[in-house]
Amino acid sequence: MSEIPSSTPPNTGPEVGRGSMLLLRGGLIVASLVVFGFLAMAVISLLNDDDAPSSGEATTLEPTDVSTDETDGGGESDDAGEPDTGDEAGDEASCDAAAGDLEAELDAFVDEAIAFIETAREQPFLERPEVRLVDVDTMTQIVLDDIEFDLAEDPEEAAVSLAFSRALGFFGPDDDFLDVYNVFVSGGVLGVYFPRTDELLVRSSGELTLMTKATVIHELVHAFDDQYYDLNAGLDREGDASWAYTAVAEGSATYVEDLWKEGLTSQEQADLSAEELAFDPGDILSLDFGFLIYQTSVYDAGNAWLDARIAQDGVGAIEDAFRNPPATSEQIIEPAGAPGLDVIEVAAPEVDGEILWQGTGGQALISAITFLTDPGYDVSQGWGGDAITVYLDPAGNECLRWDIASDSVTDAAELLAGLEDWVASVSGASVIDVGELVRVDRCA
After folding, report:
1. Mind spelling out the 3-state secondary structure of 68-85?
2. Are 398 and 444 in contact (CB under 8 A)?
3. pLDDT per residue over 100-114, tens digit each?
4. pTM, two decimal places
5. 3-state class percentages of the chain: helix first, strand second, coil last, to nearest 5
6. Does 212 have pLDDT greater than 80?
């Protein structure tokens, strides 16, 4: 695809530890904010699962990777010249037994989870997805392999996507996709669903914990929705519309996951919360904050939007949301029936340079980049429409020009002031009033 700032995930539905999310928001804004985990989705629609290798092709590791200090990940002796001793053979047998027990426990829970989802959604699975438990290194390698494959498959699209990420400031001027996603995935991805193969990967350290079970539930809902609604087709939409569709998918999965959690005992709920808060986010806080917030926003906004619809129309609202998805992030973020939800058409801004892509950013993107200076999202409210041009200037720098319309003069003034605060916190950016539009310029 040639559109760039769509929010299509590398593989639909990766989950990031909720402890990471608490560190992101809880340490920076009031503690009363509701905290959700976030989707390791690319800001760019890089990945097309139609031709990507399956996760089974990306790695030869078994579904569960359980090893002892005496063996490496492949089960070989650390000292290749020494034969196995009886103790080592016993350890290996014990390891195999533990792996078999975990697989049996996983299979039993998947059956339980499928039955729960079918009851909650009032429809059956069309087929049983494969679920694999993998360690963090395996999870990271599989996702990075898919990203690398797609970068190689369409280098022109990859260059466009990278230019957008750098020009907006989501990536540093020297960052590449593998740089960012190595940190992002290893820092907290808990699970990933591959629509093309119906395969689920869930991160595990060798136990089927409550957080692992919650991730299995969440990802199985993505598999369920994919069987009925073809998630890839929806995520193939451009820019802001793709973010909106992703919010629908995450709202659906989170709704069922929350139903499952409500069925836990009080002690289990406390144990799950403790496990989430103990999750190690690694170096994820070294990434751009706006990039991370853009990922998180599909969770809380999508969940709140879909919960409200379900409360009014029942579980059938989920199907309607997939069949008739919202066109903009504003329609997800703002209350239903709020004034100003009609989109104002904005012409793609003219630039001096080689145009790489033109499309729409949306209210969610404005909210993400201004979050540190506007955690209440006041700046982005009143968004009316926008257009972005990503280009290479005559010197070869990766740049963007973003024209944004507002619903009222007051909204435009608030937007301009809020973006001026953002500009003061980043390098290479400027914002001006251009007639009835607010214009952002930035080069990496």
Report:
1. CCCECCCCCECCCCCCCC
2. yes
3. 789 999 999 999 999
4. 0.80
5. 50, 15, 35
6. yes
